[in-house]
Amino acid sequence: MSELGRRLVSHLEAHGPIGFADFQAQALYAPGLGFYASGGGAGRRRDFLTSPEVGPLFGAVVARALDGWWDDLGRPDPFPVVEAGAGPGTLARSILAAAPRCAAALALVLVEVGEAQWPTHPSGTTSRADLPEPGSLGPGPVVVVANELLDNLPVALVARTAEGWAEVQVGARDGRLVEVLAPFGGEQATWCDLRAPGAPVGARIPVLAEAVDWLRQALALAGPGGRVVAVDYARPTTGELAALDQAAWLRTYAAHGRSGDPLAEPGTCDITCDVPIDQLALVAPPDRVRTQAAFLREHGIDQLVAEGRARWEELGGIAGGLPAIAARSRSSEANALLDPDGLGGFTVLEWRP
What we know:
Elements: H1 3-15, E1 18-19, H2 20-29, H3 51-54, H4 57-72, E2 79-84, H5 90-97, E3 106-111, E4 126-128, E5 143-147, E6 156-161, E7 164-173, E8 176-183, H6 186-195, E9 204-207, H7 209-222, E10 227-232, E11 234-235, H8 238-242, E12 250-254, E13 257-258, E14 270-273, E15 275-276, H9 277-280, E16 288-291, H10 292-298, H11 301-314, H12 321-338, E17 347-351
Parallel strand pairs: 2-3, 2-5, 3-4, 5-10, 11-15
Antiparallel strand pairs: 1-7, 6-7, 6-9, 7-8, 10-17, 12-13, 12-14, 16-17
Helix pairs in contact: 4-5, 11-12
């Protein structure tokens, strides 16, 4: 068992079970031992690839989107943009490298709870562990962008038993981490019935209290005229998740592949959960919902790919060296980013407070 696992077993044997959300928070962010706190995460040589890690094209498209939103706001200076869940800063670097028209006004704040990743954030940005307070970035609207953040925020787990709904907690037995069911009723059971009506015995659902709270904070930070844009694994309803096996929507990743039981080796793998949109809508229904492929096409990915092909031909193909190869690579990057069975099938949720 991992070092974090051994410490958790010792703690739980002494103090009793904790909720799955508390366990997930430790597994991902325990100082020096959690997956992200110890430097795990996105990257070609790390554990998985997010859209910004495929190459610079995703950031170039986001830069075009930022230009459009800047225009919509009347080109304010400064133009505060907050990237939540910035990781090592890959998306921010790609945005800045694309030289958007708004660059001179852009005030880019990178929010990353894993401070071990701050040294890799690009110069000219501000790193912090949490969302800024509303109004702290100035009196005007703010754009908040989150790529694959909400699926990483800790979730509570709830199971339908023959006696009713029960919280799935994590305890310790015989030196191992194990699940413990803690029945509940009242308002909590009613909430589960509303989110997953008719769920059979054995069904499970996530409760995204932290994601809901994050959205509430992000909307307050964005303010009137601002924008919150989240890209993630998502499904329309909680009830849809109840009809599936838990492993279909609560997943672990390590070394560029699926990992196993989240309780087995905490701290050595990522733990992610599909985002049920109906739970976020309890704060505010999104103004727009579309696939990542649709979002990227709306903001000019096809034009950027066409420009790359033209540049490749202008430079004489492979004889043009690295600049030509970089231009040509936009085609392969676009294929990955637009793939409906992969990254292109991700959901882009957009709120306009």
